[in-house]
ATP-binding protein (Oxalobacter aliiformigenes), 439 residues
Amino acid sequence: MLSSLSIRNFRSILDMTVNFSFAEKKAPAGFRDSDIVFFAEPKKHVRLVPALALYGSNASGKSNVLMALGTFRDCAVSGVQGKFHPDKLHPEWRTTAFEATIVRDGKRFVYAIEYDRDEFRKESLAVDGTVLFSIDGDRRSFGSLATPSYPAARLEEIFRVECSTPLKKQTSSFLSVIGKRYPGLCPRVTAVYDFFNDGIVVLSENSIHLSRGVDMLAAVLEKADDPDPVRHAFERITDLLENLDIHINRMELSRRRIRLDRDARERNYLDVDPEFLTRLTSFQKEGDDIVLNTDRIRSFHQDADGREVEFDFMTEESSGTQIVAGLLGVFLAVLESGGVVAVDELDRSLHPLLLIELVRLFKDRRYNPRGAQLVFTVHNTDILDAALLRVSEVGIITKTLQDGSTLARISDFAGVGNIASFRKQYLTGCFSGIPFPYI
């Protein structure tokens, strides 16, 4: 689980820490037996919230928080090329820095990077206060990772050859090289790499193709040795979709796969049926071959005479229904794996009651027994009156020229309790983070 995320000099954010701690002094009465997830406790005396809603005016920097998480993830699992997006209004800040505190398998990890347009300047990973590796320009320490098979000198060579350019600029993260290419060297490093690579999903908008949601959930089920992961993933998504009162009786998925033939002389792939490509949903690489997937998704409704009528899901169902279906696949995959999903404008094209139920998935112990977390930006305020989110789970983003975008959770404001009407207080400006328009 994410315990905290620190962001420095990324777009409108100069210096911000996103805190996921349960900030209330006392746990709610009966919390252990409650169906509601008030917090998860992945480590003794560490309580972390399952949801964080981010409110604020337009252009306050809400989306930049999620973009920062996604950029941090991309840097951690690959490198820094094309990922430098500093605050242009403060040119004196020359580097971007991220730091995440992660609690996983009862251990507290702190992973940090600092980089500029061309290279990593710093990178480090510590577990429970012990530094596993630290890179600061020419000063490097791999002592805690060294083994008889991989002494410090060999780790230094791995760093020089696999992380750095001939000009001695570090462009690939050491975390990704060890976690991906040497996974057995240090299970603790691999666990953090896997968390970034598989455990964090960032959606720049709430619209995602249902087939992608099916694929994401199927991938999680496949790791759990499910004998038919695609079919079972689709069934779980559609069962939940039907429960949300979308007026769909049932759904069917037909998947066609086509393997592309490669012209060895031209080193490219031959043409495929254009009609196939119009329904293309994903592709996979199997050896040297590319396999394309296309899905036909049908939904069935009941007409006025009680007869079943077939709809093409992607062309005849509403955009809101398609949004909910796609999100359900992603959410169920994250809930199944205990990961983190961040969604920008989660409320777009959604009825407020559907929005509440989607968030409730992460607050319901039946669906979230593994400590999955949802971070989302939102403008709809109905959810603040739904007795669903607590003071630790609502953040307000504000922005000034001097300080950039800043974040305060409702728990940071004095005198605000969980029985208060967050919506009324927010809309009257008690927490700031609202516009003051006039025409």
Q: What stands out?
A: The chain has a mean pLDDT of 91. Residues 209-336 form one domain.
